[in-house]
Design goal:
The chain has nine helices and six strands. The protein is 29% helix and 15% strand. The protein is an alpha+beta fold and 236 residues long. It has a three-stranded antiparallel beta sheet. A three-stranded antiparallel beta sheet has the order 4-5-6, with helices on both faces.
């Protein structure tokens, strides 16, 4: 049923990691991956996510794969999940249970936080709150596409990715991966889809603050989105 009704999610899952890792992965674990940055993993480097207040070595350092929008002076890391991008596109709901037994439903759009001054706090989950399920909305129909651009074809994080559901009339939804601390979607930008990829990208990435090393992502998003929209037209 996922392949039939939520093909964008199925394709995003297949684009992530390797087959061996996917076989042992969990949905909650995928959603709660720590954001992607080489300086986070190198304990010899300053990282506000790993040690709050220590600084961000990525700013002024190697930043080619890192964020271009929603970033802050404290952190420019990106979220690594492919699945989360598709779930953001679909407006999934994350079901949780707290230590006291109470439950709640969190829109996927509200699960992940932007870095601000506290990049070490990555989600809106409380202490010891567990994800128990993810609920998908009714199928959207349309053409489902997940296009991931990366440095190599296997087991690599996205430089950028585009998740899309596009209807026969050209309207639809767009979400991006590889550009921010969380899956990136701006619903107001989707109203510009009839104007083409350039117009959508301009609104989707309005206010972007790339570094000299990753400014190419602005053009890469536009070109990838144009490719996705062209693919959708051939299936209309």
């Amino acid at each position: 049923r996922i392949r039939k009704d939520y093909a964008v999610l199925s394709r995003a899952l297949l684009a992530g990691a390797s087959g061996q890792l996917r076989n042992v992965a969990t949905t909650a674990g995928n959603l709660l991956q720590r954001t992607r940055c080489p300086y986070f993993y190198d304990t010899n480097q300053a990282c506000n996510k790993r040690q709050p207040g220590s600084g961000c070595s990525a700013i002024g350092g190697f930043s080619r794969p890192l964020g271009i929008i929603g970033v802050s002076e404290a952190c420019i890391a990106t979220h690594p999940s492919d699945m989360a991008v598709a779930m953001r596109l679909l407006d999934a709901q994350v079901e949780t249970v707290r230590p006291d037994g109470s439950t709640r439903s969190i829109p996927i759009a509200d699960l992940h936080r932007l870095p601000g001054n506290t990049p070490n706090i990555e989600t809106t989950l409380g202490a010891h709150e567990l994800i128990t399920a993810v609920t998908l909305p009714a199928p959207l129909g349309g053409t489902h596409i997940y296009q991931k651009v990366r440095d190599r074809a296997s087991y690599a994080f996205a430089l950028i990715s585009v998740a899309a559901v596009i209807q026969n009339d050209g309207s639809g939804r767009i979400a991006l991966g590889g550009v921010a601390h969380k899956p990136w979607r701006n619903e107001s930008a989707e109203a510009a889809m009839s104007q083409g990829a350039k117009a959508v990208t301009a609104q989707l990435l309005a206010g972007a603050t790339p570094t000299d090393q990753n400014a190419f992502k602005l053009t890469l998003v536009e070109r990838t989105l144009a490719s996705v929209m062209a693919q959708a037209r051939t299936h209309a």
